[in-house]
Amino acid sequence: KWMRYAEAGSEAVREYDWQAHRAIYHRLIKEITLPEIAPSAHDRLLVCDIDNTLLGDRAALREFLSWQQDHRQNVVLGIATGRSFHSAQAILAAENVPTPDVIISSVGSCVHWYDRDRRRFVEDAAWSNSLLRNWDPDALANLAVALGLEPQGFLEQKPGKASFFVGTADVNTLAEDLRRNGFVGETVISHGRYVDLLARGSGKGAAVEYVAQILGLEPNQVVVAGDSGNDIAMLRACQHPIIVGNASDGIRDHPALAHAYTARATHAAGILEGVQHFRKAGLW
């Protein structure tokens, strides 16, 4: 265990040395200064989770980004993550992932579009405002703590989203316990440790559907990829979902995901495998 932690620490230090820091700025400056290529006909949407899906294998990520660069004129690249918007931006920049077209963050409670004219992200206020109806964070926090959940940090709490650690709560009955006590939103449990309580009608799945509608795309033009419990709603709602080979939380055997393509390859290689499967089948 000590050796594993020491190696992880050395890897983290390398990520934050001056050479790596300089490379990030060079990439960002190049992205800002190069002329923007206008999309010719976006007719597909690919939405990927970040941790352990898009990221986790750098060789696979490079292969995926090469494919994405070749298809950027007709494929909208979206991110759907449990991370906050700023955390998502930071980790994508650190891994040299080009700016995506849309970021769905905080488990679907925030949507940010990349404005290529102004070269910056803009929050979708209509989506955010739609989640605040009947949202009472104080009452919800009191209920959650009464059931044994432990609040996560302040920065993880968002309008329309309250985040907790499992604590002493019974994971197996938590969703039902919340409903029985009047909670009518979405309960998302991932990695057996994290619990996100979301406003009714939100979550990654609903956010992806909203993004597709804004883009004027039909459900069969959308592919999503994920690996854990907080991706279930997104995978379930999509006609063409991909479960990467390193998936956790038992989602490979989830009864609502029988229609998903389960990749043999892991991380970004699993995304590409799934994309190629749907393309060869003429489904996407």
Q: Average pLDDT, to the nearest integer? A: 90
Number of strands: 12
User: Mind telling me the C-alpha Rg?
Assistant: 19 Å
Uncertain segments of ≥5 residues (pLDDT<50)? none
Beta fraction of the residues?
A: 15-25%
- What level of helicity do the residues show? 25-40%
Strand order of the largest sheet: 5-4-3-2-1-10-11-12
Along the chain, the helix and strand elements come as: HHEHEHEEEHHEEHEEHEHEEH
What global shape is seen? globular
What can be said about the biggest beta sheet? 8 strands, mixed
The number of helical segments is 10
Structural description of this entry:
By secondary structure, the protein is α/β, with parallel strands linked by helices. Helix content is 38%, strand content 19%. The chain contains ten helices and twelve strands. The strands form two sheets. Strands 5-4-3-2-1-10-11-12 form an eight-stranded mixed beta sheet, sandwiched between helices. The chain has a four-stranded antiparallel beta sheet with strand order 6-7-9-8, with helices on one face. Helix 3 (58-70) runs parallel beside helix 10 (267-280). It is globular, with a radius of gyration of 19 Å. The N and C termini lie far apart (44 Å). 37% of the residues are buried. The mean pLDDT is 90.
